[in-house]
């Protein structure tokens, strides 16, 4: 995926709770940071800002499932990268939520300069 002129991409690795509120723009379908919680993981990291667009997230897939006396145990964790463009907010939330507490979530964001985008005729979707 091409990075638009006036935009920069960056990645962060955060433990849950992430300390951010994400919202999906109804018109574009893009997912943006609506809030960074002051004492959360994202604020401590310092890179994420309100208005940044989520490009991708990691998700955990369990490749095995065993039944032990009525208790189902999942194993064989595989971390995958999910590009969020075209995905529902529910799917993106599920991917983020699939991480066990000890495993950090990998998030990729895009931050754009509105003036540069306007000059190029582009939009962030907000």
TrEMBL record:
Pfam family, one: PDZ
InterPro entries: PDZ (IPR001478), PDZ_sf (IPR036034)
Chain ranges of the PDZ domain: 18-88
PANTHER family named in the record: PHOSPHOGLUCAN PHOSPHATASE LSF1, CHLOROPLASTIC
Name under which the protein is recorded: PDZ domain-containing protein
Organism (species): Gonium pectorale
